[in-house]
Write a structure and sequence with these properties.
Rossmann fold, globular, single chain, nine-stranded mixed beta sheet, about 650 residues, alpha/beta, 27 helices
Length: about 650
């Protein structure tokens, strides 16, 4: 942090910073969708100041948008305030993927990703219904409590207690509990999410806005253009999944396309094509050899899944170097069955290419004159120091936020009780797994009870003994009502981690099974996969397909009349496909705009799911488009991205 940021933080703590979020703190701009401020989930970026640069809260939206005065559900939202005194009135609204993923849990990532957009616009996002921290509306707390010891809530135990979400009965139990609670789970869908977009933006005080959707967020953006277009100024869809594609029948298309793009890129490069000719044919032959057990590496057979791994996994290696330059050599070496330096390297790194460090800088500078090498070494030292300072700032800010929470939001007695209870429970559990499981289960269940000294005391009496128990009961007795409420807020904070693990599959399945599965089938998946160019892709995707189709059995399908109809709109739209995206095929970025009369499409090399995370020029493109949605963008971004193909020594010797 710099001195200005530190002074701004002190002003907030002293109550002298003004109030940029006064409207939100007083309930929002729309009384029909009231807003309440909440703490932002930790950790946060070091330079973000709650109440000054960042605001978190809940907004109440109708469970059924056709009945605006009916039952309301709370959705968690956050605003990253623009750094400009003359910011534009239309924010960038980010729509999170998943479906069921949490944006609020990713504030540090989103603050970095959308920093360029914040120069003249607020950035707004929220956890959608049946998603992330907003998922409480459809949570089955009894099932959660029963299975809590298997969900990796490790606050009070180091026992390995993962795996509850693999229980085949859990989904059915959850759905029965949700139905018994009077929750209409059929209303937790993309149509209602699209209606929420307009409700929330108005409640936050924005009349017009711009959408940026990634993954499921692109599906939601397209649906919002269809059913709630009022106020939309422009739309960016990145890593596109149109509602009308058969998403689960075509599970394997994404990896097939990702392989094909490597083949095309290598063929287009004279050096790569000469060194690795007929790469597509060699890939097919290599897969067949692997299936027959004829490829051996380090004394062990190489299976087809291992061959698919680099094509698939580079998609999720945010912040790492690309594996693309090594893939032709990787395939050729497996096929040749001789020396395998590229295979050794990729397998040895478990298919993760780390970002450059000191050794890389030293190697690159090795041929420079000594004086230049010395100066480069000083720059490298400074870079390492800057990284340490950043980490220190983050640690100090987290400690300060904990102190503020303890004194302002939870109360000192509640914070002390939390610390003492954690020690007592760790001591009490011993080595008995069953005792640990019951302890965690009962702790998580407290969040679904009314905040009371009686329920908290009952928990302490069951799970602690002796002097520790007496001290804890005394602390409970001394709590004010505010401190009691503060401790139950701590329980909800702690339980959120376990809820995320427990419900992550449920949230996704809620959308997939209700609105996508009416148009997909396991037989359709098998038929489509068998038609693809590269054989044995099913080896990589069959387990996921069986999980998805099997898990959907307990759900009631909600067939939508227009779900398979392309969206028609003249709203300015920028559609982006990453050429190594193995979550949504790059070609879907073109499919999505077939009926959009004012759309531009770009295919981005060396980019995966959410191209702006991989290539800075995509951010430049997005900012330029949002600033002027009528601007016709050039192809400068994709043309600027080049691949320097890895040519191993054995290939150089063969020339």
């Amino acid at each position: 942090m710099n001195y200005e940021q530190i002074l701004a933080l002190i002003a907030v703590l002293n109550g002298n910073a003004g109030d940029d979020f006064a409207t939100l703190k007083s309930g929002g701009a729309d009384p029909k969708a009231p807003i309440a401020q909440t703490l932002c989930p930790r950790p946060l970026p070091a330079n973000e100041i709650e109440g000054k640069t960042l605001f978190c809260g809940t907004v109440q939206v109708p469970e059924d948008n056709a009945q605006p005065d009916g039952k309301k559900i709370p959705l968690k939202f956050a605003i990253l305030k623009s750094g400009s005194q003359y910011s534009e009135p239309d924010p960038l609204v980010y729509l999170q993927g998943g479906p069921g993923g949490s944006a609020i849990d990713q504030i540090p990532l989103l603050a970095r990703t959308f920093d360029a957009f914040r120069k003249n616009r607020d950035v707004v996002f929220w956890d959608q219904r049946s998603a992330g921290l907003s998922g409480l509306s459809v949570n089955c707390f009894d099932a959660l409590a029963v299975n809590a010891a298997k969900i990796a809530l490790k606050k009070f135990t180091t026992t390995d207690i993962s795996g509850a979400d693999k229980d085949s009965n859990t989904i059915s139990d959850c759905l029965r509990e949700v139905e018994a609670a009077g929750i209409d789970i059929a209303k937790y869908n993309t149509f209602e999410n699209a209606k929420d977009v307009r409700t929330i933006t108005r409640a936050l005080g924005y009349e017009t806005y711009n959408l940026y959707g990634i993954s499921y967020g692109t599906k939601l953006a397209l649906e919002t253009m269809r059913v709630a277009p009022e106020g939309i100024r422009s739309v960016v869809i990145d890593g596109v999944a149109p509602p009308w594609v058969h998403l689960y029948d075509t599970l394997a298309l994404k990896i097939s396309e990702a392989i094909e793009h490597v083949v095309e890129q290598c063929k287009a490069d004279a050096t790569c094509n000469k060194t690795f000719p007929d790469l597509d044919t060699v890939i097919i032959d290599t897969l067949k050899k692997a299936k027959e057990g004829k490829i051996i590496h380090q004394g062990k057979p190489v299976d087809t899944v291992t061959i698919f791994r680099p094509f698939d996994e580079r998609n999720g290696k945010y912040g790492n170097m690309s594996m693309t330059p090594y893939m032709p050599a990787f395939i050729y070496e497996l096929n040749r069955g001789k020396e395998m330096p590229t295979v050794d390297m990729l397998v040895g790194k478990d298919f993760v290419m780390p970002m450059p460090g000191d050794d890389d800088v030293s190697s690159a500078a090795s041929k420079l004159p000594k004086r230049q090498r010395d100066l480069i070494a000083t720059l490298a030292d400074n870079a390492a120091i800057a990284q340490r300072v950043d980490r220190s700032d983050l640690n100090v800010m987290e400690a300060l936020r904990d102190e503020i929470d303890a004194t302002t939001h939870y109360g000192p007695v509640a914070t002390l009780f939390d610390s003492e209870l954690e020690k007592a429970l760790i001591a009490a559990k011993g080595s008995e797994a069953s005792k640990a499981e019951k302890m965690v289960s009962d702790y998580v269940a407290l969040q679904n009870t009314k905040a009371s000294k009686e329920s908290l005391s009952a928990f302490v009496k069951v799970h602690t003994t002796g002097e520790a128990s007496s001290r804890l009961l005394a602390l409970i007795g001394s709590m004010t009502d505010a401190e009691l409420a503060g401790y139950f807020a701590i329980i909800q904070r702690d339980a959120a981690a376990s809820e995320k693990a427990f419900f992550s599959n449920l949230y996704l399945l809620n959308y997939a099974c209700q609105e996508d599965m009416p148009f997909n089938s396991y037989e359709g998946y098998q038929k489509y996969t068998a038609s693809l160019k590269y054989p044995y892709i099913g080896d990589a995707y069959d387990p996921l397909a069986k999980f998805m189709y099997g898990s959907c059995i307990p759900f009631k399908q909600q067939q939508r009349d227009n779900w398979q109809v392309p969206v028609e709109s003249d709203i300015p739209t920028l559609s982006i496909g990453g050429l190594f995206d193995s979550q949504t095929p790059a070609s879907w970025s073109k499919v999505a705009v077939e009926k959009l009369s004012n759309a531009q499409v770009f295919m981005i090399p060396e980019a995966g799911h959410g191209s702006l995370v991989y290539q800075p020029c995509v951010t430049d493109m997005g900012v330029a488009f949002i600033n002027n949605p009528q601007r016709k963008l050039s192809d400068a971004c994709p043309k600027s991205i080049t691949i320097t193909w890895h040519i191993p020594d054995w290939a150089k010797a063969a020339k």
